[in-house]
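Run log, item B.
One chain of 155 residues. Sequence copied directly from the ordering sheet:
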Amino acid sequence: MSFSALIDQYAAGPETLARAIKGMTREQLTARPIPGKWSTLEVVAHISDFEPILADRLMRVISHERPLLLVADENLFAATLNYQDRDLDEELAVIAATRKKMTRILKGLSPDTAKRSGIHSFKGLVSLEAVLTSCVNHIPHHIPFIEEKRKALGV
């Protein structure tokens, strides 16, 4: 897949997420119908918290020479950052604004920039294209979990 096509997929992420949660009530969003799994709101809050982290990785690979890209623990975030009390619209706005900003930045890059790289604290050397691919896959990775909750709730 071309770098340009990856950027387009990245830009489409917020709409994919919005479709997945469309029509859910606050009660349905905060329900945990599957024991041991996050609620839909917790999934959205997780995505919202990680979008700026992923964007930071992209920006540092673009602007720095082989920057260190630190890993973040999603379970620690979920356990300590009040995901169930979050405002859905605020979370969706963070996701949309982050992706809009980064899409504009990414579209302005020369094609050879995709070969720049950073050093992920867990994965090692990763290219900008690999970081962007990870960003592109983040929302689609979580959609089945949302669908699973909708099904369990009969929504």
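Observations after the first pass:
- Helices lie at 3-21, 26-30, 40-63, 74-80, 88-107, 128-153.
- The mean pLDDT is 96.
Flagged for discussion on Thursday.
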